[in-house]
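Protocol step 6 of 9: fold each sequence in the batch and record its structure tokens directly after the sequence line. For illustration, a two-sequence batch is reproduced in full.

Sequence one:
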Amino acid sequence: MTDVVLPAPVTLLDIPIHPVSQASLIATLVQWGAGDRLRRVFNVNVHAMNLAYEDLAFRQSLQDADLVFCDGHGVRWGARLAGVDIPHRMTPPDWIDPFAAATGAAGQAVFALGDEAGVAEAFQAKLAADHGTYRSAGSHHGFFAKEGADNDAVIAKINASGATHLLVGFGMPLQERWITANAARLRVKVVLPVGALFRWHAGIERRAPRWMTDRGLEWLARFGSHPVRHFRRYVIGNPRFLLRVVRSRLG
């Protein structure tokens, strides 16, 4: 296999973001799945950028990751305001099928960790049904104590599964914090936070229609469905992010 050469990251509000294409991302994940150490692959949307601005530990996790890619049209627009080019935006529901096909073809197994009981299991079953070579290494729900005996048992289960890739769907920033805290104990080769991917892909919860997701309006659909829950994240968070970008550009 020819080694994938990642483009140099660009920096937005002190966060390094690799302007990778979907094909390059998938090839990198497969290549690192055959590697000899764990790689942390994170993604950023506007919510993540706001968290990183306000939370030093979260910012450090992003800065220390092996790869950070753009998962949000708002980040692309903010980068454009800052004079930075991020040509690709990729969210997990859009790359999970080619990821499943590529890891399966490479003989690499995937463990799904997160969401309510049965959701990650349904997600794994759908990928296996859709991709004949897909290799599920198992699943576990996300409602366990993130420290102590419960956490130890979950890590032991993941390590015993033979997984090369671990998908963590706790929601941001809990999933990134858990990955950072436990990375040294995990025997997988690649770990990625994926938010609500499991329930979306399994059909338990519907995403916004494609015409909205492709035009940067997915946030509006989510806000419309749960306005109280998402008020701070979108109505306050989106303008705050853009204001920070403008201030940064002006020095």
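Sequence two, same batch, same settings:
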Amino acid sequence: MSNRDEYVAKLKAQLDQWNAEIAKWEARAKEAQADMRIEADKQLEAYRHQRDEAVEHMRKMQTASGDAWRELMHGAEDAWAKMREAFERASSHFNK
């Protein structure tokens, strides 16, 4: 397994973990009162937006040839950091 494959597998595992937690939050948001649902939906949408960007960077890394994936890794790390921040903001909202 190449370093790229290991790196992508690590990202996918983290994404799967976050998505499982988000699924729980989405269920809670559906049951929330209207005013709380609005804030919950904002948090979930921010997470989804960051997730989509991070997934796109991960896909680019998977298909990059040779050492080009290493250059893409920096962009992916930035996207992943933003996604982690969005996840943590949502987590603080849902775990109150």
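Proceed to step 7 once all outputs are recorded. Observation for sequence two: The first helix runs from residue 3 to 31.
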